[in-house]
Amino acid sequence: MSCADASGPGSSGAVDASVIEADASRFKRIEGGKIDWSDEQRASRPVREYLAALDGGNRPTNPKREPKALSPIDPSAAWTSRGRHKVMFGYSLNYLIDTKQAVVVDVEATPTRISKEVDATETMIERTEDRLDLKPKWIAADVAYGTGEMIGWLVERKIAPHIPVWDQSEVAADGKFARGDFVYDKTKDVYVCPNGKELRTSGTVHDGTTIKYIARKSDCARCPLKGNCTTGSERRLARDVNEVARDHVRSLMNTEAYRQSERERKKIETRFGDVKRNLGFTRLRLRGLTGARDEFLLAATAQNLRRLANLAPTPPPLPMAA
């Protein structure tokens, strides 16, 4: 089957992640992200992998801030409150499933961090297309995946993101005008405020994601609506560089296809429930990201074998012996 076949297996997918406890005691941790590693610790595979990843391009930690705690025996595991304990070290089991049959199409292990889980989505989609020649027509996910970067990536590859767009800037703060009260003029690349004045931009992209639009101080100073708009000298708005893609997703949210995806996305939760309840897979036995990948792959394989056995047609009964 070609990836151009939009109606066959793999034509619609869903992604999500579930937290599995690492083989690392939450009671034996080092606060912060600094550990003076001993020679004995450096000899262990999980620590070697962690230190090599720090020097490489795929750091297991958040590059913008130090982790709150590290495990001295499995430092790639993330310190998280999302697992079955209030706090623990964990890895995220990331699944890409075919929503038609609830078969796991790809699996990836990451430290339990939202940013890593979103990155894993791109990895799984690209790998599925390369290995299986399967490309989903649309992808369903929850709001955690609704970042501008993720949505823009999917739209660029002509995959419809059936993902809620969560945007705090659309919500009014303290009764002030929200960004939704400003009209974007695409032809002039300006926002028009409720009083008819323009907010312009230099076009500079900040932090790789945001373009700022600023009103004239003189317009704001004599504006009769300023009390409902801003306490500063001028009103400012931020626009995501992927806002066009985000607007496209908003236009999809009222379609029947989107609503159908929302219903079918729940099938991925049944996969996670099955792996934990029926397979008893709540804590890893191997350490390090490599160990997590091996165990996650085995778990997904076991689930798929059982699922495919149930989907296989029942053979006709054998003829009775004479």
Could you walk me through the main structural features you see in this protein, from its secondary elements to its overall organization?
By secondary structure, the protein is α+β, with helices and mostly antiparallel strands. The protein has two domains: 12-164 and 253-311, Ribonuclease H-like superfamily/Ribonuclease H (Nucleotidyltransferase, domain 5), CATH 3.30.420; 169-241, no CATH class. It contains nine helices and 14 strands. The strands form three sheets. Strands 1, 4, 5, 6, 7 and 8 form a six-stranded mixed beta sheet that branches. Helix 2 packs across helix 9 and helix 4 packs across helix 6.
Terminal CA distance: 44 Å
CATH domain class of the largest domain: Alpha Beta
Q: How does the helix and strand content classify structurally?
A: alpha+beta
Number of domains: 2
Helices and strands in order:
Layout: E1 12-21, E2 30-31, H1 39-42, H2 45-55, E3 69-70, E4 78-80, E5 88-98, E6 103-111, H3 114-132, E7 138-140, H4 148-156, E8 160-162, E9 183-185, E10 190-192, E11 198-200, E12 205-206, E13 210-215, H5 217-221, E14 236-240, H6 243-252, H7 256-264, H8 267-277, H9 288-311
